Amino acid sequence: MARFLTYLLLILIQGLNVSVLYAQISPGRLSRAHAHLEGLSNCTKCHVLGKKETTSKCLECHTEIRNLISVKKGYHSSPEVSGKQCHECHGEHFGRDFRLIVFDEPKFNHNLAGFRLEGRHRDTKCTDCHKPELIRQRISQKTSGQSYLGLGTECNSCHEDVHQKTLSDNCKSCHDQNSFRPASLFDHSKTRFPLSGKHETVSCGLCHVKEIRNGREFQRFAGINHANCTSCHTDVHRNKFGSNCLKCHNMNSFREVRSISTFDHNQTNFPLTGMHLYVDCKKCHPVNFTQQIRHAKCTDCHADEHKGQLARNGKTPDCSQCHSTKGFTPSSYRLEDHHVSAFPLRGAHISTPCTDCHKTTGTWNFTISGNRCINCHKNIHEDKIPEKYFPQAECRVCHSEQSWESIDFSHDETNFRLRGRHVAASCRDCHYRESAGKVTQQFRDLGTSCENCHEDVHAGQFVKNGKNDCERCHAFENWSPERFNHNDARFKLDGKHAGLQCIKCHKPTDRLIRNYIIYKFDDISCASCHS
After folding, report:
1. Is residue 118 located within the same domain as residue 145?
2. Which one of 55, 267, 412, 433 has the fewest CB atoms closer than 10 angstroms to its CB?
3. What letter does residue 396 receive in the DSSP assignment?
């Protein structure tokens, strides 16, 4: 549209004197800074057709100001300028010699530029800072001249970084605007090495030495090794106490040693716990406190009460595996530990005190070899049981670890199978004999006849061929003569005899020494019973 109007205007004034016409349209000649924009074809480079504002066009060229306004920095973003049109301060068309920028340096309020002048900066001339070699951002004007734009507010915009990027770019965290030295805002207590004691009066240069770096004098502040006192100080103890001098000394004076009574042994590599807390220092440090004390294992100080019994493959385990500094007893050796040993505890062994197995003679014994019962328990059967039923004297053939009375032996393997009441009988009932207060065992060659265990209450009445065969009349369930049939006897029961009770005919004897019931009669005639 602008180009079309320009062409139309040229047609209308064709043949007329151009200079006369220009004088009628243009308010006046442009300043030297904008002289290159002279001419009707350039009007729209500064003016917006149909509008009175020119600011948007100005900022299209003056990008350095536009960028500052966009981030709300600099003088043009201050309350004094914000919202104004450019032409309100910077007039134009007033001739080549017109000053676009009217700037009274002495009266300028530098606070509006976003950098408050304080301290030494108050006495600094504008040209000391606002000079081409310090201005990083070049202005867009093609004309030469002094510019106040493009200078950053960071200290290193004007000043050399004497710390050579080893410290923060924020100089104001340590320095103020009055003087670079001393760094009045620096607080050593906020560093990783707060100063205390004698360190508070030590000259900075003793720790922060000067050197030449990159061809310039450089004082090192960052990267100072201060992990231990020996980083700066000579260890007069030659590492006898380690590198942490503060275990015994403080920062007031090297000769000011902490009291032994208040010495914190926890700062050493052997913290005192349990019974060690009450041991006299001289017990462990008999000569002096600089003498190296072996303390890696308990046996470095204590005698091995077990005398090497627990050694495996020539290596004795440390006492701390079973004991603590609270006392030698109780042991911290757990049931779970015994489970992974050569003899896992089961049954009654779980509740058995350690002393029952490992201290039977008054001294501890952990050298029990083997895991057979007879390694600890006496074989009370000795040779009374045949090898066939008691191989290698292995008790677990019959007994279990749950209880000695719990027996799991199949009597069917013998030549006497248990039946009836015999099933409920205990082994002791048959295999133990007591005579004159002495108990003897009888397993081997024990006969199978009833008389081996039971008394012949019939006083030999039924002995046949020198043997009593109780099973002819009795079964194993009870003593009743279930198998006896009177019809197989010499005297068959019939008539009135069939209903009689046995006691009517078979009466006890009247002997004083041994009273028994008579079942066999020499005379079985009627007269022997009936008169």
Report:
1. yes
2. 412
3. G
Do residues 117 and 110 lie in contact, with contact meaning Cβ atoms separated by under 8 Å? yes
Closest CA to 197 of 269, 263, 140, 250: 250
C-beta neighbour count of 28 within 10 angstroms: 13
User: Is the pLDDT assigned to residue 186 strictly greater than 50?
Assistant: yes
Q: Distance between CA 400 and CA 251 in Å, rounded? A: 71
CA dihedral 475, 480, 486, 490 (to 10 degrees): 80
Query: In this predicted model, what pLDDT tens digit does every residue of 369-378 receive, in sequence order?
Result: 778 888 888 8
Which residues, 6+ apart, have CB-to-CB distance to 158 below 8 Å? 129, 134, 151
Average pLDDT over residues 175-181: 90
Domain endpoint, select from 157, 180, 198:
157
Report the distance separating Cα 486 and Cα 291, nearest Å.
105
pLDDT of residue 371: 82
144 shares its domain with 188 = no
Distance CA 275, CA 267 (A): 18
| Per-residue pLDDT tens digits for 95-139 | 999 988 888 888 899 999 989 999 999 888 888 888 887 776 544
Query: Concatenated DSSP letters for 224-246?
Result: ---SSGGGTS--TTTTSS-S-GG
What distance in Å separates the CA atoms of residue 402 and residue 176, rounded to the nearest whole number? 87
Amino acid type, 416: F
pTM over 0.70, yes/no: no
Q: How many CA atoms lie within 13 A of 299 on its CB side?
A: 12
Regarding whether 81 and 201 lie in a shared domain, the answer is no
Residue 286 lies in a domain: no
Give the tokens for residue 428: 């002791």
pLDDT digits (tens, 9 = 90+) for 28-42: 899 998 999 998 889
Per-residue model confidence as pLDDT tens digits over 361-416: 888 888 887 788 888 888 988 888 888 889 888 888 889 888 888 888 889 888 89
* Average confidence score pLDDT of the chain: 84
Written as six digits, the tokens of 220 are: 């090192």
3-state secondary structure 490-525: CCCCCHHHHHCCHHHHCCECCCCCCCCECCCCCCCC
Strand (E) or helix (H) holding 339: helix 335-339
Closest C-alpha to 285, from 249, 321, 323, 248 = 248
Neighbours of 359 (CB within 10 A): 13
Q: Decide if 241 contacts 290 (C-beta within 8 A).
A: yes
- Calculate the CA 363 to chain-centre distance: 40
237-244: long-range pairs with CB below 8 Å, 24+: 237/290, 240/290, 240/292, 241/290, 242/268, 242/269
Containing H/E element for 219?
A: strand 216-219
**pLDDT of 11 strictly over 50:** no
DSSP tag of 61: H
Spatial contact of 365 and 310, defined as CB atoms under 8 Å apart: no
pLDDT at 143: 42
Position of tokens 């470095």? Answer: 300
Asked if the model's pLDDT at residue 262 lies above 80, the reply is no
| Tokens representing residue 68 in the block | 């500052």
Give me the number of domains the chain comprises. 3
